[in-house]
Amino acid sequence: MATQSLLTQLLALTEPAAQRALLHAHSADIDDGLIDALKARADQELRADHTAALAAGELLYYAAALTGDPLHRALALFAEANVCAIGGLGDYQRAIDLCDEAAAIYAHARLPVDQADAQVTKIFALAMLGRYDEALQAGAWAATVLSAHKEWLRLATIMMNVAIVYGRMGKDVEALAHFDRAGELYTLAGEEGAWSLPGVAMNRALVLRNLGRFVESLAANREAIDRLESLGQHAEVGHAQQTMAFTYYTLGHYNEALTLLDKAERLFADDERQADLLVTALYRGHCLLEMQRYAAVIALSDSVAALAFRLHQPFEEGYALFNKALAHAGLHQATQALDLLTAARALFAQDGNLVWASEADLAAARLLLALGKGTAAHERAAQCVRHFAEHHLPLHTARAQLLVAEALFALGETVAATEQLAAVEATLADQRLLPLAYHAAYLRGQIAETTGDLATARQFYDQAIVHMEQLRGRLMVEHRADFLAGKERVYAAALRLALAQDEPAIAHIYADRARSRALHDLLTLRIDLRIRAHNDEDAPLVAELNQLRRERDHHYRRTLHANEFAAVMAPSSALATPSSVSPAAVEERIATLWHALLVRNADYARDQWLDGEGTERTDTSSSFFEDKSDLTAMQARLPEDTALLSYYRGEQTLTLFVLTRDHITAETLPLSTAQLQRLIEL
């Protein structure tokens, strides 16, 4: 029977026993062509369905046993190694052992090119286990052999995996150079190399992000996703979505990051890729930290660290401990946080990743600063600046420079702090990094206020408010209160200066902008905000609306609760099966129902606003003086005999505003939050 005919019949069968029976019946027809076709089939399934890839590998083993040809067995070994390492199983030591057995077969047969090619997966597996020196040695030997034999396509794959080694080590400049070289070689290979170009684009996106080249990174990610989707490589689409999500996180686009992580998680859960789910969970931990969901981060990190330990992945285990440390820091549990950072740093050092070891040092420096140890914080942060700069990591360097500036300011060295901030602002001039810009502007305001330049301080506080509100606007309504918690200090600072400059109207505007904290109070106190029908006729619409809101909330919250990570680790049918109704369709139906209810009764507008469906100002960059004209117009509508009372609650103060048609006065009283709460309860 011809090879193609036998292959067609094999693939038409769905039961492994039937496939083996067919091969046994036609064992005399099994040749190199069929073996190569089965190996290609396993490789193709590797990027889409690891279960199918394993099945193809088992068939390859059976065919090799029938022929008795050791070279056929070598291909079967190689196919299984790919699934263990690249297919998401995370069994890296098994992959190394399989590659070594295959390489020994090729060495015995005096086939140096195939022996070198067997190093491809081994290099990746060694890197994932933190054995970088061994990985680079294997890569150098294989590259020499393949170059000598002008095997450019195979050399390209070696270059890819060597680049991944450098990336895992935090050496992104070297990684990018190797990825670029791999891309050139794959392109020269024509149609044969096209299959691997999406992987090049995806990995380039990751290192470009680390190097601060965000526009190029996002473009490379989009290219990778488009190519992968066209090739049906669904699992690799998930990897690209992971990389893109972290880039969006870095830029402060938290909604986009969480949405992409949710998509990637679904792909990995469907294919039971635990190693990939682990990375997704680590990235999600970053977003949860920004929203101050500290308890969730701690629980999530414990699950991730346990899995990483079982998979013998010290970097991922250290990453989980790092996230957990930041969560404890957010809870003001400095001792636990410092202990965890020490443990995380040790794992990063064990893994050979000195960049992430410096990340742990930088986090420890911030904790030391919070504990009032400014000198120690400055010294450690300055070391991080030097190390990040040596690795050509501008974003990392800028973050460390900002902490150096904060430490210098705490030590009373305002001139030196300003010089450090200038370096940070030089980075911000090239990149739109709102999280970093917010902190830099706030510190600038503090420095100016300390030196008595209140007008300049106000300008920088205004900038910080704009940056923060832009970040807030990129979050789903239900997460905004958590994000804003702890960041209201900039409103309080700006309000304080406005009052010091005898501008109560401007102070009131700052207070008005800060009043989104009322939403935080509503959520914290668990006030029942369910919509209720205003009459019997509206009851069916209200019931449907509440049900849709629950569906929407479930869709969003499923990505944010740490206890669901354990469920994803053992995928259930509930998680593996997408909702039959898309989130976009749910949102559209919610909008339609709101419109119908508002037409019937305008009183539903209050419920709509509380639900976050109402109109909200999105142009947060508008001038405060434009807001002042709005305030003046509001005052003009007040009756002459009416005074409007308003207040702003700071951490230790309560500012009261009295607005009449012609005047605004303000009075600040020393009153802590605890005292105010007791008065409210009386």
Percentage of β-strand residues: under 5%
Helical percent range?
over 70%
Contiguous low-pLDDT stretches (5 residues minimum) are 476-483, 517-529, 559-580, 608-623
Q: What average pLDDT do the residues reach?
A: 81
Query: What is the number of helices?
Result: 37
Reported for the largest beta sheet, the result is: 3 strands, antiparallel
Radius of gyration: 30 Å
Q: What's the total number of strands?
A: 3
End-to-end Cα distance: 92 Å
Lateral strand order in the biggest sheet = 1-2-3
Helix-and-strand structural type: mainly alpha
Shape: elongated
Keywords:
single chain; 682 residues; mainly alpha; 3-stranded antiparallel β-sheet; 37 helices; elongated
